[in-house]
Recover the amino acids of this structure.
């Protein structure tokens, strides 16, 4: 796989700079493949150059553990104090999605990382909504927001967030999630179970991080206790054959982020990444960026990296894209529309069925 290059956060150009580096025909086909991104953190979309008051060099720091990484997220998110900054970040998400052929994005945000907005979570979500609406208008990329709880936060804070979510029903927020360091938090399924049940009863969708810093037990808790519709990561399920069979039988999708896992040392290398073993065992998987501004990842780049590492052909890449669309939290009509676009793209041997054709990459070679 390519060594990920941290993406510069110059507000005017982050979308262009996040373009896939490979300009070959295979990369163009992959970038034109209609898909969704379902594992993307707002916290991982803050331009690195904003950290340290905006005078930074744009280079992302080197982190080798999830703990270091989460510490960095807190420092970078603390720089975001104005609504215009949030709007910019949100709009840039849709611009990057467009370049990767991601027609819909589910954006996870975790209020515990944004200290400036602690007392104005409503204003925080409104700013994101405005940026995502502008991005949809400009790039045709639809989006939804997932409010995420932090595994290690005080229990009363989690309850307060769910109370707020269900009372206010803020715009574009369609799902409840949980993330954070599972190794540090220990088993928390029982603690979050009633909150997920309340969200589900109120009509919200659900997803949960598990099987990254936790083993198969964390994945089992997310499926059985939280009844999460999607598992973010989930890759360490591979250590338990019965669980793998269960995930395949249930059809529970795993939102896998291969480069993130390599960068944070969850797996030693792309070649050793379990996503291919899980897929081959019948588990539904999608591939995603996790934190594009910090890992230098693009959705199309992740598809390409997997194709290179595992020999995925167009049929398999099409399956991955189908899972991403089927498992995204867009409304049913939008999912049907995107599945139709995917079918047309796959039926065209040249792979040029999209109206505008694949994104032009000429000149970036
Ligand atoms: Zn994640």
């Amino acid at each position: 796989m390519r060594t990920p290059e941290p993406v510069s956060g110059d507000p005017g150009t982050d979308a262009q700079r996040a373009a896939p580096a490979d300009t070959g025909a295979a990369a163009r086909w992959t970038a034109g493949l209609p898909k969704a991104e379902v594992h993307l953190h707002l916290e991982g979309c803050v331009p690195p150059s904003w950290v340290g008051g905006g005078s930074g060099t744009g280079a992302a720091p080197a982190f080798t553990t999830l703990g270091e990484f989460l510490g960095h997220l807190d420092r970078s998110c603390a720089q975001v104090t104005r609504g215009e900054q949030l709007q910019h970040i949100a709009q840039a998400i849709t611009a990057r999605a467009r370049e990767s052929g991601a027609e819909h994005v589910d954006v996870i945000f975790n209020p515990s990382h944004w200290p400036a907005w602690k007392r104005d979570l409503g204003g925080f979500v409104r700013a994101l909504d405005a940026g995502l609406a502008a991005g949809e208008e400009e790039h045709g990329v639809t989006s939804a927001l997932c409010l995420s709880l932090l595994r290690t936060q005080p229990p009363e804070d989690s309850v307060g967030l769910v109370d707020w979510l269900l009372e206010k029903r803020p715009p574009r927020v369609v799902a409840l999630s949980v993330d954070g360091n599972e190794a540090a938090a220990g088993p928390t399924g029982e603690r979050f179970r009633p909150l997920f049940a309340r969200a589900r009863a109120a009509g919200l969708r659900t997803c949960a991080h598990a099987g990254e810093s936790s083993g198969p037990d964390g994945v089992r808790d997310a499926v059985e206790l939280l009844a999460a519709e999607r598992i973010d990561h989930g890759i360490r399920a591979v250590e338990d054959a019965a669980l793998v069979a269960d995930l395949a039988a249930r059809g529970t999708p795993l939102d896998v982020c291969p480069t993130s896992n390599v960068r944070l040392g969850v797996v030693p290398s792309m070649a050793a990444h379990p996503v291919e073993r899980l897929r081959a065992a019948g588990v539904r998987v999608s591939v995603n960026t996790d934190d594009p501004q910090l890992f230098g990842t693009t959705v199309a780049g992740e598809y390409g990296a997997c194709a290179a590492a595992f020999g995925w052909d167009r049929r398999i890449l099409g399956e991955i894209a189908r899972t991403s669309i089927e498992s995204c939290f867009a409304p049913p009509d939008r999912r049907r529309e995107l599945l139709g676009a995917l079918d047309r793209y796959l039926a065209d041997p040249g792979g040029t069925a999209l109206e505008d054709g694949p994104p032009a990459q000429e000149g970036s070679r």
Strands lie at 35-41, 102-109, 142-150, 173-179, 205-210, 230-233, 254-256, 285-287. Residues 121-139 form the longest helix (19 residues). The two ends are 18 Å apart (CA to CA).
